[in-house]
Amino acid sequence: MDDSIILEGVNKIYGAKQVLNDVSFSVPRGAIYGLLGPSGCGKTTTVKIVAGISEATYGKAYVLNQTMPNLTLMNKIGYMAQSDALYGDLTAKENLEFFGSLYGLNRAFLSKRILEVMNLVNLTEEVNRKVALFSGGMKRRLSLALTILHEPEILILDEPTVGIDPLLRKDIWEELYSMTKNGVTILVTTHVMDEAEKCTHLSMMRDGRLIASGTPIEIQNSVGVSKLEDAFLIYGKASGESPNES
User: Fold this and answer.
1) What backbone torsions phi and psi does residue 34 show, to the nearest 5 degrees?
2) End-to-end CA gap in the chain
3) Which of 171, 56, 161, 86 is nearest to 120 (CA)?
């Protein structure tokens, strides 16, 4: 498979603080690539650079063979941030219609697609309810619906299932797998071990660096353990991380 996302020696510096240090990885087309690590390790900064929201201080980021940031790729990327970018005074449907118009979706396709994505996130009965009345978990689910509304080739999800119940989380992951079968490439951040195990490819992060990369099984085998959690602890300790950071 060709690579849909490539990072080459990416560094990010804010003032005197270096947030990312020589981050390099490639994501094959149709893969689910996970970034696993504790809060503050650089996962969000990394995916923002891939999404074109932020720019590397040094190094290169490529998406679909184009250097990022690149406005011409915005319609091919779906980005779900940790914070929900929703309009509380609008209904769920009105939020979807607004963002659909920004993507240039025609009315007939948009109406059909709204039904599909709301069904996926189990919010069909809430479609005409104002978002201000939604719980945190419902807002998270609506954010995911907005992210996949325009059927992007690249899906970038920053902690997408926080606050979502386990049964619905399972359904969402099944849909993600289904999307990859159609060639969609997914980059996802998580600190949840069972979600990291669902990824086809994985990198562990600490203090702005990648400390291990490969498939989940390859990472486990590299240190001779049968659980990804154990591998994470071993790599964390080797890189100087205290147990309570993970």
Assistant:
1) -105, 145
2) 33
3) 171
**pLDDT tens per residue across span 129-164:** 999 999 998 999 999 999 999 999 999 999 998 878
Alpha carbon distance 117, 91 (integer Å): 15
16-24 — which CB contacts under 8 Å span 24+ positions? Answer: 18/208, 19/45, 19/208, 20/45, 20/46, 20/49, 20/56, 20/208, 21/207, 21/208, 21/209, 22/59, 22/209, 23/59, 23/208, 23/209, 23/210, 24/59, 24/210
B/e letters for 104-134, b = 16+ CB within 10 Å, e = fewer, are ebeeeebeebbeebbebbbbeebbeeebeeb
Report strand pairing: 17-28 vs 3-14.
Answer: antiparallel
CA angle (216, 19, 221) in 5-degree steps = 15
Mean pLDDT of 232-246: 68
Average pLDDT score over residue span 155-184? 90
Residue matched to tokens 């406005």:
71
Question: At 45, which helix (H) or strand (E)?
Answer: helix 43-51
CATH architecture of 3-241: 3-Layer(aba) Sandwich (3.40)
Mean pLDDT of 199-223: 97
**11: three-class secondary structure by DSSP:** strand
* Each residue's pLDDT tens digit, 97-127: 999 999 999 999 999 999 999 999 999 999 9
In the DSSP assignment, the letter for residue 146 is H
| Domain ranges, ordered by start, for the chain | 3-241
pTM score of the predicted model: 0.92
Q: State the Cα–Cα distance between residues 179 and 43, nearest whole angstrom.
A: 23
pLDDT for residue 205 is more than 60: yes
